[in-house]
Amino acid sequence: MTVWAPVEYTGVAELRGPLVLVRGVRGVGWDEYATIELESGERRHGLVLETDRDLAVVQVFEGTAGLRAEGTRVTFAGGPLRVPVGAGWLGRVCDGRGRPLDGGPPVLGAADAAVNGFPLNPTRREPPSEPVLTGISAVDALTTLVRGQKLAVFSSGGLPHLELAAQIAAQADTGGTAFAVVFAAIGLTHADAASVRDTLEERLAAGESALLLNLADDPVIERVLTPRLALTVAEYLAFELERHVLVVLADMTSYCEALREVSSARGEIPARRAYPGYLYSDLASLYERCGRVTGLAGSVTVLPVLTMPAGDITHPVPDLTGYITEGQILLSRDVPVYPHVDPLSSLSRMMRAGAGPGRTRPEHLDLAAQILAALARARQAAELAELVGESALGAVDRRYLAMAEAFTNVLLAQRRDEARSLDETFERAWRVVSVLPRRELSMLSPAALDAGYRERT
Amino acid sequence: MGAVNTSGAPGAPDTVSASGAAGTVSRVNGPLVEVDGLAGAAMFELVELGPHRLSGEVVSLRGAHATVQAYEYTGGLAPGHRAERRGAPLSALLGPHLLGGVFDGLLRPLDGAGLWLDPAAPRPSPTDRAWEFAPLAEQGAVIGRGTALGAVRSGASPPYLVLSPGGEVSAIRRAGPCRAADPVAVVGGAEVTVERRRPVRRPLPYAARLDEMTPLTTGQRVIDLLLPVSLGGTVAVPGGFGTGKTVLLQQIAKWCDADVVVYVGCGERGNEMADVVAELAGMPDPRTGGRLADRTVVIANTSNMPMMARESSVYTGVTVAEHFRDMGYDAVVIADSTSRWAEARRELGSRSGALPAEEGYPADLASALAAFYERAGRVTTLGGRTGSVTIVGAVSPPGGDLTEPVTTLTQRFVRSQWTLDRDLAYARHYPAVSWSGSFARDADALAGVTPEGAARRARVTALLAEADRLTALAELVGAGTLPPHERVALLGGRLVREGLLQQSALSPTDAHCGPARTAALADALLAVVERAQALARQGVPVASIEDRDFSPLLRAKDAPEEEIPARRDAVLRELEAAR
Ligand SMILES: Nc1ncnc2c1ncn2[C@@H]1O[C@H](COP(=O)(O)OP(=O)(O)OP(=O)(O)O)[C@@H](O)[C@H]1O
Ligand SMILES: [Mg+2]
């Protein structure tokens, strides 16, 4: 605690992009929180990105538009940016920096915490082992989301990934245990943000969710802060208040663009596609905040959503995300129905630990593997059919094509307001595999087949 | 450890001399810290920064101006703060506590550290435990450097040898409990303790490198059969995300027949570390009857932990391995992923304004990689034992592009490369090791050790290459137009891929496969393919050969080894029915 009034500095030496360079400072620490006061009395906020003798480089969340070298005063807080944390966030809609947008009072917390958090000691982590049920059949059945996991949604412009993310946020639960959703909207249009807010309405009213909205016309640099704020709030809910928390971060491509803007203003040596060389570590410092802790009931599950520029999965944003997350749900235009999940390109690396006997259904992993294997075979058959015509296919191959169609119509296709119970998802999944002759289902045990397989009538 | 040494940096002397020369921080840019007034500092000397005494290492010097890479989050560190020299290079505390433990990139124990790794919080000291010491040398004896003075045992871990600095043993402790920091002997006038500190960036000395090759058995068929690695070898494992690098490396950590495994999680996931630690603790070591964890040292520097400790973690890892090598053990270092280490170097280079080479990487990347992999090898130790360090490093190329600098540079300095192929992984062919895009430069030398293995490898390789060539052709002209012997070759390729190369890490029976079983499976499949070729030559219609039920053989990998010949015979009989 500083007991003396913080020193105000007026020596703004340079304004460059989102950066303010202040001269004449003393004892300003790296990553310190700063307040920038304009002549008009308006206050902005920032962080120290570099401190070099008497010079401090400050990144301004609200941007530098309208700032002048003269008359601008900068004060430093003597510590990193801390935000209030606690149950007070639940039910609230705020902007990307946590200021209320819902007409309510400022969010006050039981405590406060540094937005960057600290790394979780890996030896205190508990391997994830229970599911978060999303009510989306394609996810629950084939790419199960697991508590403490980070699972990315990869999409392309024009696909309804935001609707899907909002639907998951609205429907997800952990079967009766205390659950909460923190939704960080990053760089969304007003229309998209309104629709997310609509979908989350009920959950907000029930005090099970917090919504942070950074809009497309909000300050770009604020986007660097929004996911950190969301994760800091979530960590407290999970590890102090012992809730299972799902954090949705959408759209991470906008976040990365904000980071690139700061980097380029600083004249840093760029890596691929002009993104900074530390993009991997920066994204990891966000996504790695998921997890479970031995001896505590809560968990943080992270669902980053991103659009692949030009649909290119090798673009640095999806590529580095894929190197950090534990799997991906890939949305594709080639899948004609909502939610457009391409099952063969999607994988939840934690599913083995979070699904199956005692967690979802005993036959879950075998059934999922069987569906995927059959879809792969159906894809081959479809390619062959393109060459030789469907009528030239053998009878078994044609059953595979029928199975793939049933998969799309019965299991995958889902309404945007439809929450499917696990029972219903499994009932549909069995209907789909039952399109194939029983002897084709070699991955399922005879006992599972006896219980679930439907003979065709 | 002195109370002042709260940062607990290994390598720091145990007491801080009040006269520790100090300079002043002049610039802080993330992990890059510049310090004025450090005249006389040495390259790679440790420095303590600011009021929390964050540890850092001098990485460049210009007069009294030093550039320091900090091993902790530098939030709050400011120009004007004190920076104190420690008078010693970055070094690691080596001792019997390593086996079965989990450490950060500076080799500080993570077991018992706080839930959140706050750089200002004190870290537990590893040295409190008592060990059972047994002397192996007599008082009055004159023994050479590197000879065992005594042994320390703990559980089922391999005996930990306390090595002599060389000279006359003027005193030696009797058998009984002792602490790692207690002297156990006086040799050549100097006290010897169980634990010791060693600089990490310099290789530990040995007497001579050995040329003859001995295989390291990994338990993964595609490796042991097609791409074998020798003790003391070096392997790069490049592959895009999700192609199976971590799973393959973890399989090797669990099942390879080394004495000691050093698993370095370098800038990767926390959940994976939790998983590997839990698994190793729960698995019996078939060779010792203990737990696999007892032969393993885990260094966990996850991607959200400080970046520069990621840079040092590969060096601490290989130093630990060399230390066990000197006791006469075969040690394996597994580094997942070396790309994150290279990126940490790039990050520091870029913050210090160094002129970058390819893709922003510093120009010394090639020499740094070469020096790192050069620390592998099978040697005669100073004490006359035989020991080895094998290095297996994952490489994570951006966009899966194998022409990027870390992959291409690494390729020049390793003996083997196991390339993971995205198409194979996509088709859930695991481990997704590409047989055509990988190499094993020691394979021919190892063939001298097992001639029948070499013949088997040659046959399987030829069969796969032929099948690959024909698959490409069939895509153009349709498989139906190929002559019978080529269609059988395609069938053979499929049988070998599915029945031999695919090996699920999740299978309770097949996750690990011993050399005899690997050989039996390969021979059974080769016999079946050969018979199928013979039938095709005799004019048996190829469609009826293709339609046979090969499943007993394809599933033989999940069956006990004794059953393999019977399954082979069943499929051979089934083939006869094609006539
Ligand atoms: N040998 C195997 N047996 C069974 N499944 C495997 C095997 N190898 C990989 N997999 C599957 O592939 C997934 C990804 O593998 P892994 O985590 O090893 O990839 P990676 O190459 O390390 O990716 P990243 O670069 O993102 O860390 C695993 O979660 C698992 O589902
Ligand atoms: Mg990995």
Automatic annotation (TrEMBL), chain A:
The keyword Hydrolase does not apply. SUPFAM superfamilies: P-loop containing nucleoside triphosphate hydrolases. Keywords: ATP synthesis, Hydrogen ion transport, Ion transport, Transport. Residues 16-78 form the ATPase F1/V1/A1 complex alpha/beta subunit N-terminal domain. GO terms for biological process: proton motive force-driven plasma membrane ATP synthesis. It comes from the Bacteria. Residues 355-450 form the ATP synthase A/B type C-terminal domain. One of its GO terms (molecular function) is proton-transporting ATP synthase activity, rotational mechanism. Residues 135-348 form the ATPase F1/V1/A1 complex alpha/beta subunit nucleotide-binding domain. It holds the Pfam family ATP-synt_ab_N. InterPro entries: ATP-synt_VA_C, ATPase_F1/V1/A1_a/bsu_N, ATPase_F1/V1/A1_a/bsu_nucl-bd, P-loop_NTPase, V-ATPase_su_B/beta. The keyword Transport applies. Belongs to the ATPase alpha/beta chains family. Produces ATP from ADP in the presence of a proton gradient across the membrane. The V-type beta chain is a regulatory subunit. HAMAP family: ATP_synth_B_arch. This is V-type ATP synthase beta chain.
